[in-house]
Amino acid sequence: MNSVKALCLGWILLFGLMIHIKAQTSTTIVEIQSVDPNGTTDASPFLNQFVSVTGVVTASAEAGNLDAIFIQQQGQTEWAGIQLRGGSGIISLKVGDLVTVSGTVKEENGVTLLDNADTLMLNGTGNITALALGPNTFTNYSLATTEKYESMLIELKSNTGPISVVNVNPDSPNNFGEWVVGSDSNIQAEGCRILTGVQTSSAFSSLHVSYVNDSLWADNAGRMKVPAIAVKQGDKFEAIRGIMYYGSGEMKLLPRNNEDFDALAVGIEDEFPFVKEASLFPNPVIEGAVLLLELNKKENIEAAVFDMNGRLVKKVIGKTVFSTGRHKIPFIIPPNMPRGIYYLQIQSGQEVKSLKISKR
């Protein structure tokens, strides 16, 4: 009798497994995301279906990244990205992981995502190269021209020169943390929105990006993990990378960390009244540099070098009183300091000025 019960239980479990397997549709991200560009809806044809897909992780919840998880199908340039949400099995995913995941296709505020996503299989690693597009491509949302880039890794870049900050706050007098870069610094109405430094119940972006539209985001709507550097109109970048996202009728780029920015010259600087001028020579640096500092008045100054994750690398100036006028402060770079991008933060009381350092 017990053997009959065991056999029946086995058949029941097998039948349940077969139902689960049948309910799970194996497909691709492109198939989930693709819609008729001349149609009237951006909703996925797989809406509310339980599916499995394979892709490379382009943004993750690991330290120093976006705090949101996206994957992208290899070898595709349209309709290839999707956001993953929920499921403890995806939290440990790292950028570059080639992974097969399952989840339910949902539409939320115009964004297609995999809900209750879970990892089925790690397939080693893969590589996604950011798709280079001009920032003016994303001036206006269009089902026909911009929807296909939702949730993909994009590099904003111009073929004719650097891209520029054309609008520090396109939502003024409100401020939602967004700023705009375009191909022409003189045209405010054209370009792509960038969202950084803000995490609220209705908006998310990376707290590991220094470039923000206002230094107030340093400790508002999520405490930033790196020094805040307020962009100014006319600031220039060679390129900016990130996940292309949709929200409130606009496409916007979500950079993951400071490594997603290729800034020009010595970097963007916050302007505060305590410093008339600040620069670094040479820059890039090899073994040492000289900080050239001109103060508007007598100040108690301290300065330090931080890495892109906000970790202290070297104390350059302890709290020291400097007189009005010009000062030259030489300092030595630590011999074990790896090549890369760093920030020299100069502080007087609550006022901060930041310079970007390139270490060769």
Give me a quick take on this structure.
About 10% of the residues lie in helices and about 40% in strands.
Give a verbal description of the structure.
This protein is mainly beta and 360 residues long. It folds into three domains: 24-125, OB fold (Dihydrolipoamide Acetyltransferase, E2P) (Beta Barrel); 131-263, no CATH class; 275-359, Immunoglobulin-like, CATH 2.60.40.1930. It has two helices and 23 strands. A five-stranded mixed β-barrel has the order 2-3-4-6-5. Strand 19 (299-306) and strand 20 (312-322) form a beta hairpin. The longest helix is centred in the N-terminal third of the chain and has 22 residues, at 2-23. The relative contact order is 0.10. Residues 11-22 and 265-271 have low confidence and may be disordered.
